[in-house]
Amino acid sequence: MATVAAPRRFCRCACFYTDNLYVARYGLHVRFRGEQQLLRDYGPILRNRGCVSAKDFQQLLAEDAALAPEFLAAAEYSVSPGADLKGLLQRLETVSGEKRIYRVPVFTAPFCQALLEELEHFEQSDMPKGRPNTMNNYGVLLHELGLDEPLMTPLRERFLQPLMALLYPDCGGGRLDSHRAFVVKYALGQDLELGCHYDNAELTLNVALGKVFTGGALYFGGLFQAPTALTEPLEVEHVVGQGVLHRGGQLHGARPLGTGERWNLVVWLRASAVRNRLCPMCRCEPDLVDDEGFSDGFTREEPTAVDVCALT
User: Where are the beta strands (DSSP E) in the chain?
Assistant: First the structure.
């Protein structure tokens, strides 16, 4: 039997996001793992090139870092020897221990602003656009913007998975193998609120990107709770750059926007090892239909090709 070679998939090394970063202001390539590491490894040469005050250093971080130092520290701790849930929770804000909802700064303010500018340029272009999901009418799918592979996949694989493995081991947190990432937009004359629902995901990250707005708070009920039973929801206000982490089955929604515009990045994190057994939407064994890309995160075991000629 003839063997057909699978098409090659070109990739990049994860070091693209942390190593050999060029700081134009000081004409220097650096490796970035956090503030302390940057100071330790590059403090003398940075001072020689004019980065002398604390203000200079903070401006350097703001201009050249996408991920918030707190997020980097939490991710770094999560992969350290002896890391456990208790230690990780000291590096996160616990919004609700009972509902297992947490918050942590994810992106720096300059990165949020830069991403918003890209989103608005794309929104105003004549490029084809799909709806973010079945409930939101306005927003952007990150893969349409070309940011899925260079931004979201490394974010999931390198940073989110170690955190989720400690926070939600029972929900596939350590076995995340796909995602769906999109930005939702709320504005007057467009979407204003979002009704009660749960996500097509094992776990969810929701990051507030901006802009200036009032209202629109998130609210949470129980796990796979019927919307009619939502009597005393927990409300969570948005903080630009900060991400809310929760289980996909946690019933939630968004209050009506009062003024301004609100943009949020939502990442549905999926573990095929979990959803292959039980679809999170119909709560039944999944009836699989072939699709493209990550699709809805289910996987099908392909039969192994056998070279019959080699057996005769």
Answer: 21-23, 28-30, 93-96, 101-105, 139-141, 178-187, 194-197, 203-210, 213-215, 218-223, 234-236, 242-247, 250-254, 257-270
Strand locations in 81-138 (E) = 93-96, 101-105
Quote the pTM value: 0.78
CB 255 within 8 A of CB 219: yes
Least confident of 2-16, 219-233, 291-305: 2-16
| pLDDT number for residue 8 | 47
* CA dist list (Å): 249 to 19, 56, 208, 272, 284: 37, 44, 20, 15, 14
Amino acid at 157: E
Taking only the tens place, the pLDDT of each residue in 17-67 is 566 666 667 777 788 777 888 889 999 999 998 988 888 887 776 555 788
| 8 A C-beta contact, residue 36 and residue 77 | no
| Residue 238: closest CA among 105, 140, 139 | 105
Is-contact 292 245, C-beta < 8 A? no
**Contact indicator for 111, 260 with CB cutoff of 8 Å:** no
Q: Are 100 and 246 in contact (CB under 8 A)?
A: yes
In single-letter form, the type of residue at position 3 comes to T
The dihedrals phi and psi of 91, each to the nearest 5 degrees, come to -110, 0
